[in-house]
Amino acid sequence: MVHLGPKPPQHRKGTWTDVPASFISELHALEESLTLPVETLHKITDKFISELDKGLSKAGGNIPMIPGWVLDFPTGKESGDYLAIDLGGTNLRVVLVKLGGNSDFDTTQSKYALPSDIRTAKSEALWDFIAECLKKFVDEEFPEGVTEPLPLGFTFSFPASQDAINEGFLQRWTKGFDIEGVEGNDVVPMLQAAVERQNVPINIVALINDTTGTLVASMYTDPEAKMGLIFGTGCNGAYYDVCGDIPKLEGKLPADVSADTPMAINCEYGSFDNEHEVLPRTKYDIQIDAESPRPGQQAFEKMISGYYLGEVLRLILLELSKEKKLFFQGQDLSKLEQSFIMDTSFPARIEEDPFENLSDTQELFQSVLNLSTTAGERKVIRRLAELIGDRSARLSCCGIAAICKKRGYTSGHCAADGSVYNRYPGFKERAAQGLRELFGWGPEIKEDPIIIVPAEDGSGVGAAIIAALTEKRLKNGLSVGVKK
Ligand code: BGC
């Protein structure tokens, strides 16, 4: 394997001869606070490893480390037709997956944009919306009707406690969701009831985290896959542990599950360092947290994931213009003052701007924020976008390195999905570089032994495979949850 892609942008601290002098000291201070040297990455990774262990212990810790009750590795031989849905980002996805049984599959899918107010709607509105989408999809795909209820794998991309594969008690909403009446409850019967109200012939077989789905889907086709990772609206990772190494399951394992039975763990590591001991948070991160629906939660995720990257940039620009009176002088800042007006595509488009004079960035600011920009301002904005993207990618490596070190992986593929991984310019190269630094691979290493690779479709194919594995266990009279 060769090093992936071009080298990440070099830090250019101190070379700002072409922007106004008044910007320089501000810029240097921002560079300082957003740059993560390898020593910091090591410190974060070390704490990460001990927090992963703590999460598996009886006492527990900040990182939930949820056993996902996927107790088998996929073999590639799983077959059959399954429905899968994915709730957790900006869209609801419904997928019909035909598993071929030879590490192959076919998918047909529809995407439904979540209504803009659903993140804060009432619980029934959410479940009814999903059930209506499912009805539309099933009516289109099965116009003749079905003889048996369709088995469905429900990818629910939030921290949900599971004592069995077919349940999930929402611990807390993340990613700006704040729907009343769901936290603390099992989401499976809620969706099943809504589906029944719509008369759709569906049986929810398994509840799956998107990272677990990603892990299993990738293992279906790639024997080197070691973990499933999402860098999207939120961030998280899953890997396989063995039941005997999960102290909090002691005394709860059913008789047919032995100490060496594999168990997929949904780490929920977006909550790493909620106690704020090692992450170098800036005042912008602190403000984002304080103004979020769940302050104090998802500390790591709030510095990394797509839901927040544009907001970090917005807060910095607001400070530079409103408080420091350096940027956008004499202009109407009302748009820039709107929280979350800049989603992640905003810094991504700035970084993608191919023009020397950053004319795409100029147009973006004009059209979305009604702000005109000087050439000097645009240079600084571009640098800020780079810094925010680089910080996200480098922090992301700490979770990966921690899982590798914990499980003793010295080689393998880390299967990643999500909008930031797939679409944020430079993320892949920066993350690869971060891993090289963390593992100390110098130029003498021609092929990185641990690489991040694009995942198979976890929330579709992964959910389907897990549904198939679950049906097989049930058919064989095997357990899919704690000792009853
Ligand atoms: C959720 C995880 C999910 C991740 C990526 C986080 O906010 O808590 O369950 O895996 O986002 O979607």
TrEMBL record:
Pathway note: Carbohydrate degradation; glycolysis; D-glyceraldehyde 3-phosphate and glycerone phosphate from D-glucose: step 1/4; Carbohydrate metabolism; hexose metabolism
Catalyses which reaction(s): a D-hexose + ATP = a D-hexose 6-phosphate + ADP + H(+); D-fructose + ATP = D-fructose 6-phosphate + ADP + H(+)
Coiled-coil residue windows: none
Pfam family, one: Hexokinase_1
Domain Hexokinase C-terminal: 226-469
PROSITE patterns: HEXOKINASE_1 (PS00378), HEXOKINASE_2 (PS51748)
Gene3D superfamilies recorded: 1.10.287.1250, 3.30.420.40, 3.40.367.20
InterPro entries reported in the protein's UniProt record: ATPase_NBD (IPR043129), Hexokinase (IPR001312), Hexokinase_BS (IPR019807), Hexokinase_C (IPR022673), Hexokinase_N (IPR022672)
Listed EC numbers: 2.7.1.-
ATP-binding listed as a keyword: yes
Domain Hexokinase N-terminal: 27-220
Keyword Transferase: yes
PANTHER family per the UniProt record, alphabetical: HEXOKINASE, HEXOKINASE TYPE 1-RELATED
Record-stated family: Belongs to the hexokinase family.
Protein known as: Phosphotransferase
Species the sequence originates in: [Candida] anglica
